């Protein structure tokens, strides 16, 4: 019996590329994936649950976890910390579940440093023009902020070499199907299974 550990999959890409939409569609399909729950110091909002929406911590607790190296990545936005707890991810993986993390590029690079065995997928816009349209069509940002986001996106696209796979998000359905194929093929990789098969052969005394 092959006792397979789960794999951590990290979906990342520039702002406006549609990471959240792709992740939601992936989880709408029948999947055994576990979503990586983030940790935050922000207050719980009505209807949210600890351990479902986020793991909620005080600032002191969060900073202690940073010092102890217990976060795969973290960042600070508007005086609140957000991060990915290592313990939850490792626990799910050891139970044989694949864990899925959707995150900004800088966060993904931190995860790569702390958890290099993860599988990193870069979600790519069909074109920079299309990315610009998506950011503009959100209608929530000023001209200056849009330009900054586009500059940032260009820089992030240059960091693509840090990733294992690139998926173009020209169509959400196609993108999700490609991600499902990546997940499947990663489980068939020889180096993942070889050690376990060798053990079976050793245990099986002819």
TrEMBL record:
<dbReference type="InterPro" id="IPR027417">
    <property type="entry name" value="P-loop_NTPase"/>
</dbReference>
<protein>
    <recommendedName>
        <fullName>Guanylate kinase</fullName>
        <ecNumber>2.7.4.8</ecNumber>
    </recommendedName>
</protein>
<comment type="similarity">
    <text>Belongs to the guanylate kinase family.</text>
</comment>
<keyword id="KW-0418">Kinase</keyword>
<dbReference type="InterPro" id="IPR017665">
    <property type="entry name" value="Guanylate_kinase"/>
</dbReference>
<dbReference type="Pfam" id="PF00625">
    <property type="entry name" value="Guanylate_kin"/>
</dbReference>
<feature type="binding site">
    <location>
        <begin position="13"/>
        <end position="20"/>
    </location>
    <ligand>
        <name>ATP</name>
    </ligand>
</feature>
<keyword id="KW-0067">ATP-binding</keyword>
<dbReference type="InterPro" id="IPR008144">
    <property type="entry name" value="Guanylate_kin-like_dom"/>
</dbReference>
<dbReference type="InterPro" id="IPR008145">
    <property type="entry name" value="GK/Ca_channel_bsu"/>
</dbReference>
<dbReference type="InterPro" id="IPR020590">
    <property type="entry name" value="Guanylate_kinase_CS"/>
</dbReference>
<keyword id="KW-0808">Transferase</keyword>
<comment type="function">
    <text>Essential for recycling GMP and indirectly, cGMP.</text>
</comment>
<dbReference type="GO" id="GO:0005524">
    <property type="term" value="F:ATP binding"/>
</dbReference>
<feature type="domain" description="Guanylate kinase-like">
    <location>
        <begin position="6"/>
        <end position="184"/>
    </location>
</feature>
<keyword id="KW-0963">Cytoplasm</keyword>
<dbReference type="GO" id="GO:0005829">
    <property type="term" value="C:cytosol"/>
</dbReference>
<dbReference type="GO" id="GO:0004385">
    <property type="term" value="F:GMP kinase activity"/>
</dbReference>
<keyword id="KW-0547">Nucleotide-binding</keyword>
